[in-house]
Every structure is written in C-alpha cells, then in structure tokens.
Amino acid sequence: MLPAGYRFSAVASGIKKSKKPDMALIVSDCAASCAGVFTRNQVIAAPLVVTRPRIATGRCQAILVNSGNANACTGPEGIQCAEQTVALTAAALGIEKDLVAVSSTGVIGVPLPLPPFERSIPQLVAELQPGSAEAVARAMMTTDAFTKIAGAKESGDNPYGILGIAKGAGMIHPDMATMLCFVLTDARIDSDFLQELLHRAVADSFNSITVDGDTSTNDTVLVLANGAAGGNLICPGTAAAAVFADHLNRVMLDLAKMIVSDGEGATKMVQIRVIGAKDVDDARAAARSVATSSLVKTAFFGEDANWGRIIAAVGYSGITLDQDRIDISFDSIPIVASGVAIGPEHEAQAGNVLKKETFVVTINLHLGEGEASYYTSDLNYDYVKINADYRT
Amino acid sequence: MLPAGYRFSAVASGIKKSKKPDMALIVSDCAASCAGVFTRNQVIAAPLVVTRPRIATGRCQAILVNSGNANACTGPEGIQCAEQTVALTAAALGIEKDLVAVSSTGVIGVPLPLPPFERSIPQLVAELQPGSAEAVARAMMTTDAFTKIAGAKESGDNPYGILGIAKGAGMIHPDMATMLCFVLTDARIDSDFLQELLHRAVADSFNSITVDGDTSTNDTVLVLANGAAGGNLICPGTAAAAVFADHLNRVMLDLAKMIVSDGEGATKMVQIRVIGAKDVDDARAAARSVATSSLVKTAFFGEDANWGRIIAAVGYSGITLDQDRIDISFDSIPIVASGVAIGPEHEAQAGNVLKKETFVVTINLHLGEGEASYYTSDLNYDYVKINADYRT
Fold this sequence. Notes:
Two copies of one chain form a homodimer.
Chain A: E1 6-11, E2 23-38, H1 46-56, E3 59-69, H2 75-93, E4 100-107, H3 115-126, H4 134-139, E5 148-154, E6 160-167, E7 180-185, E8 188-189, H5 191-204, E9 209-210, E10 220-225, E11 233-234, H6 239-261, E12 269-277, H7 280-292, H8 294-301, H9 307-315, E13 327-330, E14 333-337, E15 340-341, H10 344-354, E16 358-364, E17 370-377, H11 381-389
Parallel strand pairs in A: 3-4, 7-10, 8-11, 9-17, 12-16
Antiparallel strand pairs in A: 1-2, 2-3, 2-10, 5-6, 6-7, 12-17, 13-14, 13-16, 14-15
InterPro entries (chains A, B): Arg_biosynth_ArgJ, ArgJ-like_dom_sf, ArgJ_beta_C
Family (chains A, B): Belongs to the ArgJ family.
Keywords (chains A, B): Acyltransferase, Amino-acid biosynthesis, Arginine biosynthesis, Autocatalytic cleavage, Cytoplasm, Multifunctional enzyme, Transferase
C-alpha cells in the first residue's frame, strides 16, 4: 500500500549521456513534516548546502532528484545552479521555494548544466501521478544493478503506509557517488520527533552498512510525513510511536541490506554481529572494524573461514576486550572458543556456511551487554574492475 | 658496511612445509642497549607477550625469529612454547634468558611445535657468523617477494653502521601475518634515548605505510645498539644524536617503502603528502584516510587521476578543513585548485603521472603548517587473488 497524498514522475533529461531516466520529482499534496540526515563528509556537495537549511525548517513538499552529475566540488556556481533548480521547481508547482528539496548523484567535479532542468521540470510537473515510485527509483540509479524500494503498512486503528526509495551500491564511484534515500509516509508526526526517530533508524541501518568504507559527499536521507492517512498525531513515548519506529527501522534496514547486496561486485551479504561487548559503542566499533577489513571481505569472497583475520580486526578496533574470552561462530557453527580455534572439523563446517550468499558471523566478547550489527559485502575481482576501469 | 659485533645464522627447521629457511638467529657479541615497538592490536601473539618485558629492561643480546607459524591465538600453551624457545636459545648461547627476544610470523591459531626449535637452535648457534644478514632476511619471509635490507654508515669522528632487516607485505595474511623489523647498530647509545628515537622513526616510517589498513597481532620492531664500533656515547640534544636519528629514520623509511612496494599484488608505490594542514596530527589523519581508501587505491591501479575520490577521503577524515581551499597535484601537475577541477588538459597530464610506478600526490589544505606523508600501494586483482585464495 502506497502512502496517500504523494505523486511521482521521472524523465530522461539528457544529463546522462545514455539517455536513461535521470531526473525525478516527488510531490506531497500538502506541505509535510520532514526530517533529514546528511553526509558527515566535510566535503559537501552543492545540493546538500541548499537543502539542509530547508529541511531544518521541518516542512517540505517536493523533492527533485537527478542522477548523472553529483554537483559536488563545483564551487559557488554549483550552489547557484542548485538554487536555480529549486526556484524552477517551486515556480512550476506554484509553491514556496522553502518547500523544495534537491538531491544529486553522479560525477564529481563537473559543472551541473541548467538547461536539462529548464526543459524537464515543467514536464515532470505535468506528468505527476500517484501509483508507483518505481520510475523515481529507476531515475536515481547510477551503478545500481536494481531499484531499491521497501514498504511497511500499519493496519491498526490509525492506519498508514511507509514507502522507502533508495539508491547506492557503495560510496561508490565519486564519479557515480552517493547513497540517497527518500522515505514517505502518510502518518501524522511532528518534524522534531520525526528527526529523532530518523537518527535512531539511520544508526542501525545506513550507518551500519559498508561496501568500501568510503563516505560520499552527497549522502542524503529524507523522511516526509504528510498526515494524508488522516490518523491521530503520533506522539513521543506512546505505543503508536514505538510501532511507527519499528516500521521505519525495518523499511530503512531493508533498503540498507539491498544496498549491500548491490555493493559493487558483491556476491555475498554478511551480517557481522558483535554481542557481549562492554557497551553498544564498543559493539558497533568492533563490528565496523571487522566489516570494513579488506582482508576479511576478501576471505568471504574466497569462502575461507579465516577467523584469524576477524579476531585481528576486533583487536585493532580500539575497544575493551580480553582476547582469551572471544568466541566466534559462522551461523550456528562455533569456530573459536575463548580466543582459540575449536578444531579443523568446525572450520570445515564453517566453510560450508561461507558458500551461502548470506550468513551471520557472531562475535561474542563475553564482557557485557553491548550488541550491534554491521552488514558488509565481499571484496572481489569485480569490485576492482568496476572501480579501476570506470573512467578509462 | 655491517655494524661490528653481530653474528647471524638461518636454517630450514621444518615449520614451513615447503622446507624453505624458516628460523634465524641474530646475536650480539655483548649485551646491547635495546628498544622496541610492538603492535597496537589488542590481540597479541605469544612471542610479544614474552619479548615485551625483556625489551623493557633495555638490554638484549639475541633475537630468535621463525616464519611459518605466528604463535598467535594459541592460548597459554603458546606462551609456554615461546618461553621454552627463549630458554633453549639462552642455554645454547650460555647467556641469561632475559637477554633473548623471540619473534614469530606465519599462520594464526595453529599451535607452535617445539621439536623444530629443539632440533634447530643448537645448529643455529653452531653456524653463527658475521658477514651477511641476507640469510636471516630470507628466513623471515612469508608472502614477501623479496628480502628487505637497508643500511646506513656514519663515517665522521665516531664511525658506526646501521643495518635494518624487515619482512612484511601488508598485514598480510593473518595466516602469513606480520611486519617484523630488526635494526642493528654498533653505535653506543643508552636504551632510554634509543627508545625515544625509535618511536619517532616508527611514526614517520612503519606507522605511515598502508597496504590494506589491517594491523597484525605480531608486528614488532627491535633496535639493538651494542657499541662495538668503539665510539663515544651518543647523547640527547647533541649533533651526533641528530645525525644518528637521521640515519635511523632513513633506514626505517627505506624498509617501510620496500614493504609497500612488496604489498600484496602492488604495482605502484604512491606517496600521499598532505601539506598546509592545521597541525601535523591533521596532516597525518588526512594522509592516512586517502592512503587507506579502497576507492583511491583502485583508481591508482586503473591509472585514473580520480581526484574526486581523494577529496572525498580527505573530507571524511575528520580533520579541520575548508573545501574551497584544497589544492591537489600529481607530481608537479596541479589538477584541483581551491576545491574545483582545473580542467581536462591537466587531468590528461596527471593521467601520465599515474602510469609511473611511483609518484607523489600532494594535497595542500592551505590552513597551517602541518605536514605528513603516507605511503600506499594500489589495490588490484592480485591483492584479491592472494587474499581470497590463500587457504583454499
């Protein structure tokens, strides 16, 4: 079930030389509550400079997105161009400029041309329709192999829907940069609380995945809540809020896992689950260290239950640990107990787990209650090929 | 010129199934001043547990090293075995146990067998001779493609020599882990001052290189100064100390660069030089972020002057920066000025620089006087092959 009160359109504007769809518009029937999370990279693309203060007002009605050019490292002209695309969209929709967000993804360092926007924005507005967000998801793709859409539906007393659309397959190419995610709901919720829920959901989804450890200049997650379902306001501390948070978390985690599965060259999606850490920060740091290790990721590709690389990556993560307490298992197969190998039979069984496309590596530190997961892909020849050959 | 008063030997003890040399002994004629730096990984191999407190006494006369087994993640039995190898060496040499250091490199998590040591240590002692350290360097190799030896010679009023021997080609395999480096000099210098000089030299050499960003459980650098050259004591704050520090730094930087050149699958050795940072810590953090980026390293392999990846890696390094001030050049070719591309002609010229085996990427942040370099290799198919296929 799509959330009510949203319309979508997409076109091939000509920014992409391939003539594939590369520009899309999402419009809410009314100004929605909104929340946003942006890249922590200090090199920030022009659309983020323009969109961040708008999202901070807590209200948004339209999102204009293009692929094929990231409008990053483009100087003052890049910011001016982003402002102009906002003005064109607001004028065509007949709404305030402050209600328009813009996002870009694609080549870094190449000036973003305005003419494709001048030509295409009127067409995007004219073709807006409810129904499917598939065309939008397609127009956002760069190196993505498939569109990424996830949804949730609440069917209680106050029914509503949540729809998430994302793109990204790693940092990836700064030429083909960026993780973008737009989440739309027709639930009613204030922007401050929405921002709080978004931060929590991002921590356990998009901030817990890694393809190559690189962070793009354009990463953006926006959530719009337009209240079009007609339900009650969802307030902090209520059961309804907990239900909404669960739905939001699940939609975003589903999208995050899709991004890892679509990681450049990825053949596997592996959950690195750290339990028994001193606290959740330690658990997250250890999981991240293992998930981003090139050696661990290469071993996954080689289907090698190489726990030495895993334990070493935990060791240099900087967390509190006692190496003599560490247990490691692959799915249900224990392979290390108290920091020492259990034996070759277990390693052989773990080798069979590694042949699967998805599996879970559980690392128990036996120090406390801290628990966190990271999702990662394998590192293989195709990753090298995609990233070495792209611009040549 | 080899430093005086050291003897060497190496044998094939049978730890390596290949029957290649895998055990070596370095002995000083008298107890030498010593200093050491060990892995910051919290998962620490048994030989480090045993050797660290010995080096802390400031005196050392013999170093026993084996390849083929790292004696890491081997529990209390591993520590006991390391202690036994110390005892065997001390007995065969007729010296105190506290004067013997041991190092291991190779497979993680497999018990280290004592019999090869029982058989080989008497032979190693019997065959000790001055002359060449080549056999020692060879016996330390695991995935290394070549032996790594560097030297320096001071020929002033107080002449002395410095000899450095290293192994390592990345973390690399925790199966085949570890960076090891032994530096021998016949200069006279107290252990406390030697330790201070070593810390500084390591910061600009072994702690400024990266192949894959992983840190092994066994990394060890030891320096012995036996005074056999008969010169004056080298004291802090003197001209002689500055000269000695320069020699030590250069020997260790030479070895560090050899390790990067021998990085698994490496075809290029690239210096990432950050200048104009707020301070040296910022410069180091930015250089490290660029040098460890999989995307940057893959672009080097693709010989692609992909500055977008470089500027993005600077951006997520967490340092103070102003993206509108960043300049980037490849060797002498400027490619980015004030955060924006200079133009396609410069990118084409920079592309020619990337065809070289070694080159320098200079990133000027224009914020202060901070300066630091990291040395890195490219990431390519062979890296994946070596690391994915090893245990299969």
